[in-house]
Amino acid sequence: MSTNSINGATDRESLTIPLLANSTSQVAIVGASVCPIESLDYEIAENDFFKQDWRTCGKIQIFQYLFMKWLLCFLIGIIVSLIGFFNNLAVENIAGIKFVVTSNMMLLNRYGMAFLVFSVSNLVLTLFASIVTAFVAPAAAGSGIPEVKAYLNGVDAPGILSLRTLVVKIIGSISAVSSSLLVGKAGPMVHTGACIASLLGQGGSKKYRLTGRWLRFFKNDRDRRDLVTCGSAAGIAAAFRAPVGGVLFALEEMASWWRSALLWRAFFTTAVVAIVLRALIDLCLSGKCGLFGTGGLIMFDVYSANITYHLIDVPPVLLLGVVGGILGSLYNFLLDKVLRIYNLINEKGIVYRIFLACSISIFTSSLLFGLPWLASCQPCPADASEACPTIGRSGNYKKFQCQPGHYNDLASLIFNTNDDAIRNLFSRDTDAEFQYSSILIFFITCFFLSIFSYGIVAPAGLFVPVIVTGASYGRFVGMVVSSKSSLNHGLYAVLGAASFLGGSMRMTVSLCVIILELTNNLLLLPLIMLVLLVSKTVADAFNGNIYDLIMKAKGFPYLETHAEPYMRQLTVTDVVTGPLQLFHGIEKVGDIVHVLQTTRHNGFPVIDEPPLSESPVLYGLILRAHLIELLKKKVFSSTPVPIGPDAFEQFLASDFAKRGSGNGGKIEDIEISEEEMEMFLDLHPFTNTSPYTVVETMSLAKARVLFREVGLRHLLVIPKVTSRSPVVGILTRHDFMPEHILGLHPFLVRSRWKRLRIRLPQLFKIF
């Protein structure tokens, strides 16, 4: 067995590594803390007990199994939509009260008291979010999308989808977004949906006694993975009221495995979300949602009129895409560097994490309150579509410090929630509303504040900040080229948001549909498609998408869809390391206990030797969790003989079901006497007799494709010559990581640089 395996023996000191982990270690940064990680196993262990269990299932049990999949998808849709609505309701009302009180102070010319109310309320909200995250559930910090994406790729970590993380994610996100930090709630909603799906899939939470036998139908990682995929789709659907966009987001960005049955269930889940949100928003239209108003849930349906554009409008749109790609790659680069700096601060302890969050809050409040003073007051337009100046929480014409009949255009963007700022930027028939300087200041402020705000110990998303930043940049470009273009400034803001999203997140189809569902106008489709394609192509020349960079910085061993070219030069034996731990079909209990106590491996080859077979043969693979369950039941015999069929009666199918995240059994908890140590245990009925195997001469690239596409945790390497040992070694996720491979074969690093030097001049010629 590979001692370097992600499931292998872990040096105790490695759990306290202060720097960012890399994908060759057994730890990663989950949320805001360093945690041990392990692989998920999407392969079904087809042992004799599993086959017997399925043979006993009748048509009713099979119908219940299929019915529960759809029922849980329905429940996920209901719960996620209710939470999404509650989040928006809470944010709009908490932030609304803060802005109303501050505005009232401004009307009375009590500017010092207004700043004190604004900054202290923001600080209290940030402090609450950071404290509850740091002390209760550090895994809830950040967006959550990188963690969920890694989970769907096959990487698990304790607490990532727990009930505690779910609760903190909800209340922490409400507090952080309400505190005027430039963070979003879309990412946390994806994490929230994944947590709900995971908890339902594993039958609730036994720790908090929130469970039921009727929920415990899904006994393996594969079924739970599908539910988490549906949950992530529901999260985006609830955040943006974009059901189709949510499905495409899960397909394009989140899921590493996809099939038509999963597509149907994900679509059903997001359809439930859309229907429930529509019903709840109708409730708000009657005025029963307080300051939530009637806009609700980020629906910017501001382009109901026909849109006409001509060939002369294409060059500015292409310019938007090119600049958006450059800005998006720069944004990713700076965010990656800031996260690394923040990690050096966060590793010093909880007090430093909370202090960092509070410092960012104070700096943000000072900036947001001070910058509008730099903008000159503008007279209210005579044909304004709403009251000018705006008195209260939201609106296009904020009075701030201006005299009656005038408004502060920069305050109209800054002194609002992110949703209202986007709505103001997207609004049509407002081409004369904003000054060049105000839009430029707002763009620079959003660009850097969103970078500095993301890494704090609080739930924080990137989607909405990127939309705000891109919309301001797009509006500025629209103002510059307005004399030579027939498109209004609001449309340029929409295209700018699309270009910046494409440049940062590198998605195309899902972002296109999400933006269309946000703006509620299909006529934007050609321009949005063009700007997304251009921005993604330009940005890909510089670095990866933002979530991949964050996953790499956090140390998640994520397997990309493509194999590195140098992997075709290697065979699987070039990366297999030893020593290999084997079990015989009938093994001594003491030997099993010794191996489990001295290693952290999660899978062991089982071989048969004479007299059970004519020659040494590979019988299969047995999992660590199954060995621990067998030791608990103590199905031992005094002599090395096979056990009878009646042994199955001592077990239930739930005994071998996958436990919740991080809740596996431990060998240290089992008490075995000296007499039992000398007894024997027959492993045959509980060994997976059909594990995936590759011959030792297979290229590493082909083995990696098989490993990722099937979703394996262990891949056995068998010899080409049968006269040798039946097993050469085991490949795990760690063995396919570039850092591990290049560490074993340093000459590949030099060859990569050589190829890069040859290709760079060719690349520059293309551009």
TrEMBL record:
The keyword Transmembrane applies. It is found in: Membrane. PROSITE patterns: CBS (PS51371). The chain crosses the membrane at residues 70-91, 111-137, 227-251, 257-277, 289-311, 317-334, 354-375, 439-469, 490-516, 522-542. The keyword Transmembrane applies. Keywords: CBS domain, Chloride, Chloride channel, Ion channel, Ion transport, Membrane, Repeat, Transmembrane, Transmembrane helix, Transport, Voltage-gated channel. It is a multi-pass membrane protein. Its main location: membrane. Residues 687-747 form the CBS domain. Pfam families: CBS, Voltage_CLC. PANTHER family: CHLORIDE CHANNEL PROTEIN CLC FAMILY MEMBER, CHLORIDE CHANNEL-LIKE PROTEIN CLC-G-RELATED. Belongs to the chloride channel (TC 2.A.49) family. This is Chloride channel protein. It comes from Hevea brasiliensis (Para rubber tree). The lineage of its organism: Eukaryota, Viridiplantae, Streptophyta, Embryophyta, Tracheophyta.
